[in-house]
Design a protein that fits this description.
The structure holds two protein chains of two kinds.
Chain A: H1 2-37, H2 39-42, E1 46-48, E2 54-57, H3 97-113, H4 124-127, E3 137-138, H5 140-154, H6 158-167, E4 169-170, E5 181-183, H7 184-194
Antiparallel strand pairs in A: 1-2, 3-5, 4-5
Helix pairs in contact in A: 5-6
Chain B: H1 3-30, H2 40-54, H3 64-88, H4 95-98, H5 108-119, H6 129-132, H7 135-165, H8 175-201, E1 211-224, E2 242-252, H9 258-266, H10 287-311, H11 315-342, H12 345-348, H13 367-380, H14 395-406, H15 417-437, E3 442-443, E4 446-447, H16 450-476, H17 498-512, H18 527-557, H19 573-607
Antiparallel strand pairs in B: 1-2, 3-4
Helix pairs in contact in B: 1-10, 2-8, 3-5, 3-7, 3-18, 5-7, 5-18, 7-8, 7-9, 7-15, 7-18, 8-9, 10-11, 10-13, 11-13, 11-14, 11-19, 13-14, 14-17, 14-19, 15-16, 15-19, 16-17, 16-18, 17-18, 17-19
Classes of the chains: A mainly alpha, B mainly alpha.
């Protein structure tokens, strides 16, 4: 009995002490170091528009549906997609009728939007929802297929659009880790700056 | 698998192998109360202060019963601490700083589930982090267990290894010393560096409220018109009236994320700050942050095999255990990467480029290979963080994480938990070897007696009993929340057919295995699921740890016997093969029937074009 009381007291004291060190001092040290060394990243890599209004974060995808914009991947975050306070995938399995039906629709829409033949291959990322529903990237293949539509809508040459795509492409880390992706928000903002909306 | 995948895998294994010895040697010092480290000048005063405040004599060692008592009481107290904070979330002081989103109290059943889940190193989450937990709850109620449960696990593994290494001894260590030293000398210093590196990649670390961004292109959606009472409005033609809903802002999640994610990965906890876990871009911004997170999952478990070899003075044994883990890891990666790259034939038939594989639930920056690799690593270990949605994997790609958990997460495994789990299989393996040659089984100079084998078997049986028992119960009950329209109880699954069963089986495997990843379509935040999953996490942790400590006590007391020609060697390829065989045999015999009903049958149905 004596042991139980003694060890319980220790457990209570240890919990409180660890709470101070690990849940108070430690996060504040990280906060201080990050705000000092990497303030842009630590505060959400925010992108500011004119009059310093926040227009998004480099890391969080946004929805674009207009023909003059590059379109991101389908999203299952929130009711209408790209709800950054509700990150989520579709969680539909490989034999889900709902998944297959929505992919059929998306593939048809994608071909129509971009003037592709009805039997052409559609990039996987263009018709599937990402894990977070906030994927900031599309694959370079997907961007290339959308390029001529955007060029035409904006009255730009295809080469101009392609060079903007290249500027907005995040390459694999050290050239080996991960996959290349085109940051859709950065690309669309850059296009708006080059060729303002008509 | 393409060449880029091979290069990344070789790089990953190469770096893991390179840090195993140095980190293992460091662990030897951390887990020895007299060990001296380069951090002593900074950390020693904090360590002394801790012993003084909680009234511990660091020189005093305890027997297994006292060690277990202290461990259980600490777990109980810290679990109640978390439960209390979650329940009081909305009334604690400094609301404007720590609960700027004005989140309400967490419900009783969800608080129990979450407190049990984090105490047991599971980090199963029936909730979505950004919409449920205040900054204070994340940073204190949850993060304290990310450190403590990891340190407890490493302490238990050290106690078992001491039991194996010692002879005619009564004690196996001091729980408070292990807890303190692992936290201060191992976890905290690595996390301080790791967290800042993660921020450099784009992870957030701040205390400001959520930001609001003005969308460049507002999004229009047609939604059903509702009247003041929340009912849908019908027009004169009887059809539901639709109205245009415009979304012109995006809410950007903020908060102290990096400090929590560093220990979430290093301590193989896996509980996400956000709902989408390591798929959410802030929580895993770049392929480099992804690589480091994967490395941090396996770093300590891999080093512990070196600690084992060093402590029992048989380095070959440590490496043989490492090799067995590596074989199982490699096989898992190969299978998962193959089936995810092969994709879903039903989607290929729609004209989706077959070269892109199964991208549903995966992020572009990680692609197929890094998603499959992450899924294998996170379930080989008891981490449970995810960078892609396992629920949307192909049937056999998703079978790999599920089977990894069911094998007991002994492939490197959770911090500490992986090693003590694997040592249970080692005991069973030498027991089987002993039966084959007709001799009393021996392990490192100790006779393995019926009592020891009973304890090892008990651990294996608890795993099977909890996973299969609860899954069977949930499959024939409706444990989910009621359907909002019909008010009928549901089973909470997001998919029908065999995949729905897989969601339930995965949930109890993950909870019992203290993993925490999910086939996340299952809506588990309902009283019955929360309670049974919470209980499964407690069984999976404590009903295993206590017999393991008893085994440690029993091994420590034994006399050393001389090695003879009939002693089965516990190093070398023969032993590694026997160990791999034992793990697969026990796992297969236990779980194949359930797996056949879920992923295996789904695989054939998918190829036959059956949808649900």
């Amino acid at each position: 009995m004596n042991t139980i009381v003694k060890e319980t007291t220790r457990a209570i004291l240890a919990t409180l002490l660890f709470a101070i060190v690990l849940c108070g001092v430690y996060p504040v040290i990280i906060w201080g170091a990050s705000q000092l060394l990497f303030p842009h990243q630590a505060n959400g890599s925010l992108i500011e528009g004119r009059d310093r209004k926040i227009v998004g974060s480099e890391w969080l995808g946004q929805n674009f549906t207009g023909a003059k914009y590059f379109h991101p991947r389908p999203s299952a975050a929130g009711a209408n997609g790209y709800d950054a306070a509700n990150s989520s995938g579709s969680n539909l399995g490989p034999t889900s009728k709902k998944l297959i039906d929505s992919l059929r629709q998306r593939a048809t829409d994608y071909r129509k939007e971009n003037g592709l033949a009805s039997d052409s291959l559609v990039p996987g990322d263009a018709v599937t929802a990402s894990g977070s529903g906030l994927d900031p990237h599309i694959s370079p293949k997907n961007a290339a297929l959308q390029a001529s539509r955007v060029a035409k809508e904006r009255g730009l040459s295809l080469d101009d659009v392609k060079s903007e795509i290249a500027k907005a492409t995040d390459r694999p880390s050290f050239g080996i880790l991960g996959e290349a992706g085109v940051n859709v928000l950065k690309l669309n903002l850059a296009l708006d700056a080059v060729a303002p909306k008509k | 698998m393409n060449s880029s995948g091979w290069i990344q895998l070789i790089l990953y294994v190469g770096i893991l192998l390179a840090i195993t010895k140095p980190l293992g040697l460091y662990l030897c010092k951390v887990l020895d109360v007299d060990g001296q480290t380069f951090l002593d000048p900074v950390v020693k005063p904090l360590e002394r202060l801790t012993y003084k405040l909680i009234g511990v004599d660091p020189k005093e060692e305890h027997d297994w019963k006292r060690y277990a008592t202290a461990m259980l009481l600490f777990s109980l107290v810290s679990m109640l601490f978390t439960y209390a904070i979650l329940r009081l979330q909305a009334v604690l002081p400094f609301q404007s700083l720590f609960n700027s989103q004005k989140l309400s109290a967490v419900s009783e059943h969800l608080s129990f589930n979450t407190a049990a889940s984090f105490t047991t190193n599971t980090n199963w989450q029936s909730y979505s982090g950004e919409g449920t937990m205040s900054y204070f709850s994340q940073m204190v109620a949850l993060a304290i267990h990310n450190f403590a449960s990891a340190a407890v696990g490493i302490g238990i593994a050290a106690a078992l290894v001491r039991g194996i290494a010692r002879h005619t001894a009564k004690t196996i260590g001091n729980f408070w010393v292990d807890l303190t030293r692992v936290t201060y000398y191992l976890l905290l210093p690595i996390c301080i560096v790791f967290a800042v590196v993660l921020v450099s990649q784009g992870m957030i670390q701040n205390f400001k409220p959520f930001d609001t961004a003005a969308l460049t292109e507002p999004v229009h959606a047609q939604v059903e018109k509702k009247n003041d009472k929340g009912e849908t409005v019908k027009g004169s033609d009887g059809k539901t009236v639709m109205e245009d809903q415009v979304t012109d802002t995006q809410t950007i999640v903020q908060g102290p994320m990096a400090s929590q994610i560093a220990i979430k990965m290093l301590g193989t906890n896996g509980g996400g700050y956000t709902n989408a876990n390591a798929a959410q871009p802030f929580e895993n911004p770049t392929p480099l942050s992804n690589f480091l997170q994967m490395l941090s999952i396996f770093a300590i478990p891999s080093a512990l095999t070196y600690f084992l070899g060093r402590t029992v003075k048989n380095q070959g044994h440590g490496w043989a255990v490492w090799a067995a883990m590596f074989v199982l890891f490699f096989a898992g990666v190969m299978v998962a990467a193959h089936y995810e790259a092969a994709g879903n034939p039903n989607l290929t038939a729609l004209g989706v480029d077959p070269a892109d594989g199964n991208m549903e639930g995966k992020e572009v920056r990680f692609g197929i290979f890094n998603s499959a690799l992450f899924a294998t690593i996170t379930t080989d270990a008891s981490c449970g963080a995810v960078n892609s949605m396992h629920d949307s994997f192909t049937p056999l790609g998703g079978l790999v994480p599920l089977l990894n958990i069911q094998l007991g997460e002994v492939v490197f495994g959770g911090v500490g938990a992986g090693l003590y789990g694997m040592l249970i299989y080692v005991i069973i393996a030498v027991f089987i070897a002993g039966l084959m040659v007709g001799r009393t089984p021996e392990y490192l100079g100790k006779k393995i007696e019926p009592k020891d084998v009973k304890m090892a078997s008990f651990v294996i049986l608890i795993l099977a009993f909890s996973i299969l028992g609860f899954s069977a119960w949930a499959s024939v009950s409706k444990m989910g929340a009621p359907d909002p329209l019909t008010n009928q109880l549901t089973d909470g699954t997001n998919n029908s057919g065999p995949h729905g069963f897989s969601e339930i089986l995965y949930a109890y495997s993950s909870a019992t295995g203290n993993n925490g990843s999910a086939f996340a379509g299952l809506t588990a935040n309902a009283p019955w699921y929360d309670t049974t999953l919470g209980l499964a996490t407690l069984f999976g942790r404590f009903a295993m740890i206590v017999p393991i400590l008893a085994l440690a006590g029993s091994l420590a007391r034994k006399k050393l016997i001389a090695e003879s020609a009939g002693t089965f060697p516990v190093s070398g390829p023969l032993f590694t093969s026997l160990l791999v065989g034992t793990v697969l045999l026990v796992g297969a015999l236990t779980f194949v029937p359930a797996l056949v009903l879920g992923p295996v049958v789904e695989h054939f149905l998918m190829h036959a074009g059956n949808w649900f």
